[in-house]
Design a protein that fits this description.
The chain is about 35% helix and about 20% strand. With about 400 residues, it is α/β, with parallel strands linked by helices. It has a domain of about 80 residues: Ubiquitin-like (UB roll), CATH 3.10.20.30. The strands form three sheets. Strands 1, 2, 3, 4, 5, 6 and 7 form a seven-stranded mixed β-sheet that branches. It is flat, with a radius of gyration of 24 Å. The two termini are about 30 Å apart.
Length: about 400
């Protein structure tokens, strides 16, 4: 799973990325601070299933905080996009191509309206963040259209010569964007295009087709960043009404980064996504630090969280509908080294027991015999669709 973080310059993308990953990235309040894409690991948050059995997991990857298990996911932060990006403005084509392999997108917007369309600072509230939503949709749609239309006549001719359905040809043309033949078939039907005469498809409907394929192959949500600034919450409420088809999460990447840095340096105990934290040594803090922590505490109490963890979880579990599954033994949760549930695998929505076996190891898939649900001790056939949180032992011949 690869989640792309997108948005215009200076909207807080790199701050969000650093807050989510604690990776070292350059952060500044001027356009194009990020040129090359940043790639790092963030973490989604799930209940630790070992707690049901009076134990605590020992993750091979990720970590445990309290009753929560943090599971790694790949994140990529591309450089800021500006209007005309699909035409190459602001190195836009290069930045868009960095998103090719992303499974889902998180669109970071400055919901306070303090950055204009070029990423330049303006008076807070003087810019309408709704324009950013529309601008990015347009850039992404034209990006898909440009790739789809590349060598269009030759593409159609080749499909006809090979007697390949146009949906299958589109899958091949857009394979780098994760478009499937089934997606293409459904989109062609929705736009009411004749699959037998692609050469006659009008430009306007091609753009609609590109837009549908973009939404299906790269589902997107919105992180309404800088919600801690004046006027931002009102803008957030308005955006929810104007764009009901998007899940919009209010967040403050600045506050989340401050909390995670403070936790990293042992100043506080903080679990990402929680509405509180504990100061470890208040006597060692100066007045400025106490005041800053007071602001953070007040924000969490009022808003419930900084929103950053909610954004990551929504992207993985709601947009992509992945589910955490835990390989384990029927007799005990520990592996041969004594680690409790060392692995948590994020599986696609329709993943089966057989697919889990292959994910664990190719030999388990090839020699699959059966799977057993740890909680119920019931057998699971290879075509059994896994449920979120399942603990499963795979049995295979040697």
């Amino acid at each position: 799973m690869l989640i792309g973080i997108v948005g215009k310059p200076s909207c807080g993308k790199s701050t969000f990325f650093k807050a989510a990953t604690l990776a070292e990235v350059e952060i500044a309040s001027y356009p194009f601070t990020t040129i090359k894409p940043n790639h790092a690991v963030g973490f989604v948050k799930v209940k630790d299933p070992a707690r049901e059995f009076g134990k605590v997991s020992n993750p091979r990857m990720g970590y445990i905080l309290g009753e929560w298990r943090f599971v790694p996911v790949d994140l990529i932060d591309v450089a800021g996009l500006v209007p005309g990006a699909h035409e190459g403005k602001g190195l836009g084509k290069e930045f868009l191509n960095d998103l090719n392999q992303a499974d889902a997108l998180i669109h970071i917007i400055d919901v306070a309206g303090s950055i204009n369309e070029r990423g330049e600072s303006v008076e807070p509230g003087s810019y309408d963040p709704a324009d950013d939503v529309a601008f990015l949709e347009e850039e992404l749609d034209y990006w898909y259209l440009d790739i789809m239309r590349k060598g269009w006549e030759r593409f159609i001719r080749q499909a006809q010569q090979e007697k390949r359905p146009i949906a299958a040809a589109l899958e091949r043309q857009l394979s780098g964007l994760r478009v499937t033949e089934e997606m293409a078939k459904q989109a062609i039907r929705e736009v009411e295009l004749n699959p037998e005469e692609p050469a006659m498809w009008p430009e306007a409907k091609l753009l609609t087709l590109a837009s549908i394929l973009r939404r299906r192959s790269k589902p997107m949500m919105i992180a309404a960043n800088k919600v801690d600034l004046p006027g931002a919450w009102e803008n957030y409420e308005r955006l929810k009404r104007e764009f009901p088809h998007y899940h919009i999460v209010p967040c403050s990447a600045d506050f989340e980064l401050a909390l995670r840095e403070a936790s990293k340096h042992g100043v506080i105990s903080y679990i990402p996504g929680e509405r509180t934290f504990t100061i470890k040594n208040e006597e060692g803090l100066n007045e400025k630090q106490k005041a800053a922590l007071g602001v953070l505490r007040g924000f969490l109490e009022e808003r419930g969280s900084t929103g950053v963890q909610e954004v990551l979880n929504h992207a993985a579990f709601d947009l992509l509908k992945y589910k955490p599954v835990f390989p384990g033994g029927v007799g005990k949760l520990e592996d041969s080294d004594g680690r409790v549930l060392p692995d948590c695998l994020l599986m696609p929505p329709q993943a089966t027991a057989l697919e889990l076996a292959y994910r664990i190891h190719t030999d388990f898939g090839r020699h699959f015999v059966k799977a057993i649900n740890y909680r119920t001790k019931l057998l699971m056939a290879k075509e059994h669709v896994l449920a979120p949180g399942d603990i499963v032992e795979i049995m295979a011949t040697k």
